[in-house]
Specification:
Number of helices: 9
Strand order of the largest sheet: 3-2-4-1-5-6
Structural class: alpha/beta
Helix content: 40-55%
Mean pLDDT: 93
CATH class: Alpha Beta
Order of helices and strands: EHHEHEHHHEHHEEH
CATH topology: Rossmann fold
CATH superfamily: Phosphoglycerate mutase-like
Number of domains: 1
CATH architecture: 3-Layer(aba) Sandwich
Shape: globular
Number of strands: 6
Radius of gyration: 18 Å
Largest sheet: 6 strands, mixed
Low-confidence stretches: none
Length: 254
């Protein structure tokens, strides 16, 4: 007798829409400033107007799927920009009856003393830390008071345990952040540090892009989630909405 499926049928990992922080960072870097001007905490940063439109466009794409292929569960980072993306997406998809579960393990990577700084600001304010990061690389480097990519991966390991315990055979939509999307790939595809960072160097994860995994029972002993698409932005392009790829994280020194 075949062993019972432990994974969801589908897992969509979506980065939030463009946020006010994304645009503020771009403006600060263009002006050569060291500090990104935002009068709020990172968890409280809302979507930009473009971000709202991106989320609605993606929601219409999800709403256009057959009922048997739409999400049955939604997990979201508690950060405002992710929650607003999920709410706008579900409204546009006419799927507002779905409950949305906020999970702090899906939050943005914490930047510690680098929070709110551009590359120039980091170099000027924390030259020793900037040099240490260059030696260690972004995967293992942890800014004071912040997290490394490995720290994010550690908390996402427990998210995967929740998915296999509570969401078997479900179609799960996760709305979170760029590093979270990349770290899901690292875990589900069993990547090395070098493989993950090569993907990160190739291109940023676009706002409201879709990274999708589908269960394939032919893989492994009991089946596993297999990547179907990455950084999928066709729903935005078809709706005529801008495709934006501005990172949330400060531009750390290379």
């Amino acid at each position: 007798m075949a062993e019972a499926q432990k994974w969801p049928d589908v897992l969509w990992a979506v980065r939030h829409g463009e946020s006010a922080a994304n645009t503020a960072r771009q403006a600060a870097e263009a002006a050569g400033l060291g500090v990104i001007e935002l009068a709020m905490r990172d968890p409280d940063v809302p979507l930009s107007l473009i971000g709202h439109r991106q989320a609605a466009a993606l929601g219409r794409w999800f709403g256009g799927l057959a009922a048997s292929r739409r999400p049955t569960a939604v997990l979201v980072s508690p950060y405002l920009r992710a929650r607003e993306t999920a709410e706008r997406l579900l409204a546009a998809a006419e799927m507002t009856r779905l409950s949305v579960v906020a999970d702090e393990r899906l939050r943005e990577r914490e930047f510690g003393v680098f929070d709110g700084l551009t590359k120039r600001g980091i170099e000027e304010s924390f030259p020793d830390q900037a040099a240490l990061r260059r030696r260690m690389g972004k995967f293992y480097f942890r800014p004071p008071g912040g997290e490394s990519w490995c720290d994010v991966i550690l908390r996402l390991r427990s998210v995967l345990a929740t998915l296999t315990r509570d969401y078997r055979r479900e179609r799960v939509l996760v709305v979170a952040h760029q590093v979270v999307v990349l770290c899901f790939r690292y875990l589900l595809e069993r990547m090395s540090e070098e493989e993950l960072l090569a993907i990160d160097r190739a291109a940023d994860v676009a706002n409201c892009s879709v990274t999708a995994f589908a269960f394939d029972r032919r893989q492994g002993r009991r089946g596993k989630l297999v990547l179907e698409r990455y950084n999928f932005v066709a729903p935005l392009e078809e709706a005529g909405e801008p495709v934006t790829t501005r990172p949330d994280a400060p531009a750390a020194p290379e």
